Each structure stands twice: as C-alpha cells, then as structure tokens.
Amino acid sequence: MSKSIKAIVLLALTLVVVQSSLFVVSEFERGIKLRFGELIEGDIQPGLHVKMPFVDNVRIFDARILTVDAQPASFFTVEKKRLIVDSYAKWRIANVETYYTTTGGVESVAQNRLANRVNNGLRNQFGTRTLNEVVSGERDLLMKNITEDLNSTVLDSLGIEVVDVRVKRIDLPQEVSSQVFRRMTAEREKEARELRSTGKEKAEKIRASADRERTIELANAYRDSEELRGEGDAEAAGIYADAYQQDPEFYSFVRSLNAYKSTFSNKGDIMLLEPDSDFFKYLNKQDVE
Predict the structure, then answer these.
(1) 68, 88 contact by CB (below 8 A)
(2) What is the pLDDT of residue 210?
(3) Which residues contact 271 (CB under 8 A, 6 or more apart)?
(4) Which residues, listed in sequence order, are joined to residue 58 by a DSSP beta bridge?
(5) Are residues 82 and 16 located together in one domain of the fold?
(6) Tens of pLDDT, residues 5-56
(7) Are residues 58 and 70 in the same domain?
(8) Which of 109, 160, 161, 235 could be a cystine partner for 103, CB 3.0 to 4.6 Å?
C-alpha cells in the first residue's frame, strides 16, 4: 500500500474519530452522557461538547414547553354531581437526570404519567368544590392549586415542571344533560309565557289609554264644533234679523218662494191645504203695484 493511500485512510479514520468525539446541543435542547449505559454526566447545556468515541452515548431531549392532552375523565363535585372533564397541561424538563432515570427518556411515558397525575389532581380539587365553583366561580384558583400540587411531586419524581394546567371543557353526563336540557327548555318556555303575558297586559293598557284619549279628543272636537256651529247660527240669525228689519215684506216673500221651491220640487208631492191658508198668500194676492 502506498504512502498516499495510508495517509488518506489515516485521515479518514481521524475524521471519523473526531466526528464521533464531538456533539452539539442546541439552545432548546438538553442532553445526558452515558458510558456503557451508565449515566456519567447529566444536564448538558447548549454548545459544543466532547465525548469518548465508540464508548460514550449521548441522549438529547427537547427542553421546550410541551403539551400533554389528558383523556376526558369523570369527576364528582362536593355535591356528588358527576362531570366529564377534558383538560391539558403545559410542561417542560426541569431535571434531565431524574427525567431519564424515571422515564427512560421516553416522552410518551412522561406524558402518560403526567396525564394520570393531572386527572388525580383535578379529581381531588373537584371533590372539594361545588358545580358553580368549578365551572365559573373559582376556575382560576382551581387551576393554580392543581399546578402547585403537581409541581410539589412531579419535579422530584419525574424531573419535569408543570407550567400550567387548563380545563378545555366540562360536560354533564348524557343522562343528566337530557334532564338539564328539558328543565332549561321548560324554564325558557315559562319565561317566554310570562313575557308574552306582560306584553299583552301592557298592550291592553296602551290600547285602553289610546281609546280613552281618542274618546276625549272626539268629545272635545264635537264640543268645539258645536260651539262654532252655535256661534255661526247666532251670527247668521243676527244677519237674517238685520235683513228682516230693513224690508220685512221682501224677506217674507223670499222665504215663501224658497218654501214653494222646496215643496214642489217633486211632481209626486201632494199637499192638502185650505185655499185661504197663509202658505198661498202670495199666490192668491192679486194686487200688482
């Protein structure tokens, strides 16, 4: 074998050894170093590091905040009311050595154990509170207490830190939901009937008030019209009286003509009067000046 080939082989072996001796941990990762399966270095910080080639083994774990979605579980409140609760938790690795020792570095194992503890914490917290408290009244305090309780145990037992716990949904069991929905429907129908009854009552009051005002307005209008008509009749009578005083004979003649016109407007009209009646005094009058 020539010297050049030996040099190339030696260089290649050197590169392999160097490559096997160096490893990088990024800023969002943490690592541990194992030698023949035994942990010799834990919580390796981000950066470039050295290991013994072919002897040491490095395990890298995600140090970012992760999410575990717990399966919906059934819990009882202090009132013995059963609820179906769906929750999730935010967590991250706090102690890499403990995390690897207890879970073998398998993320799914850590998530399953954490999900079980989250459900146990929720069960304990729900068991000391009423339905109203867990649904709205003390939701934030409940989540805070669960987070604190979990961190008091999982940090030492699993090497992880729980950042936050949240409840996504709280449902009643199907058999209870049907009863609740029926009761809600009955309450809404009762409320609707009450509103309709109140509306009809107000409508009747408004209608009665409008009718009363209409009657009053019509009465006032009729009174005013009668007053105006009376004033007009009085004024007309005054005018007629003045005209009568100026020429009584002519006034009587004109009124008689109007009476004749009204009386004989229809050819079928028949009147039985004495010939010397005052009604025909102008027709019987022979004197012509």
Answers:
(1) yes
(2) 92
(3) 263
(4) 33
(5) no
(6) 766 766 676 666 666 778 888 888 888 888 887 778 877 888 888 887 778 8
(7) no
(8) 109
Residue 143 sits in which domain range? 66-171
DSSP letter string over 129-187?
Answer: S-HHIIIIITHHHHHHHHHHHHHHHHHHHTSEEEEEEEEEEEE--HHHHHHHHHHHHHH
Residue with tokens 């080939």: 5
Alpha-carbon gap, residue 243 to 208, rounded angstroms: 51
| pLDDT value of position 213 | 92
Among 171, 187, 215, where does a domain finish?
A: 171
Task: Name the one residue in this structure whose structure tokens are 């929720």.
Answer: 122
Kind and range of the H or E run holding 161: strand 160-171
In a domain, residue 94? The reply is yes
Residue 59 φ/ψ, nearest 5 degrees: -110, 130
Local structure of residue 149 (DSSP, 8 states): H
3-state SS, residue 42? strand
- Same structural domain, 72 and 166: yes
Three-class SS of residue 269? coil
Reduced 3-state DSSP string for 187-224: HHHHHHHHHHHHHHHHHHHHHHHHHHHHHHHHHHHHHH
Task: Please indicate, yes or no, whether the overall pTM of this predicted structure exceeds 0.70.
Answer: no
Mean pLDDT of 106-117: 89
According to DSSP, the residues that pair with 69 across neighbouring strands are: 88
